[in-house]
Amino acid sequence: MSKINNNNNLFQEAKKYKSAEEFIENIPNNSREITFHQTGDKQAEKIYKEGFKVGLLAEKRGAVFGAGNKVNDKLYSRNKEGEAFFGQEPAKIAIDIRSLKLFDATEHGISDEIGQAVTKGDLSKLPKGYDGAIRYLSNGDVYEVVLPHKTATERIMTESQLIGIWKKANQVTD
Known about the structure:
Layout: H1 9-14, H2 20-25, E1 34-40, H3 41-50, E2 64-66, E3 90-96, E4 102-104, H4 113-120, E5 132-136, E6 142-147, H5 149-154, E7 156-157, H6 159-169
Parallel strand pairs: 4-5
Antiparallel strand pairs: 1-3, 2-6, 3-7, 5-6
């Protein structure tokens, strides 16, 4: 699980809110510190226990996809793979993306090799030395972050960790 110190934008952002719940709900869409993987609540429980695994429903692709907090505010799914989550409550898994070297694939649409690969979750086409890819909307919000399963698993943040950031930022003790 990821660790956050008090010298980052997320910690400073937490100071703006009166409650941890309000902070978590309002983590900015343009945050370069956290991305959110959208899934169903039952699948989220499995991911928290076992990590992101290849072959689990929507995680069949070669990568884990995330987005800004409210960019894709329902179940995030490109196609019919989302049908496996029908009947489940939407859930978000926070992933710490600070300090990752992410390739900016914003300008790579589906008409070039890198854009097609990122869309499919094939990160092998990225230039060497990158941990994953990121795409932005024209307003600066994070449209999507694409990470290898292992990297995403190592950087999962629990709700308790996010609440802890808010408490520390606002000097709240239990």
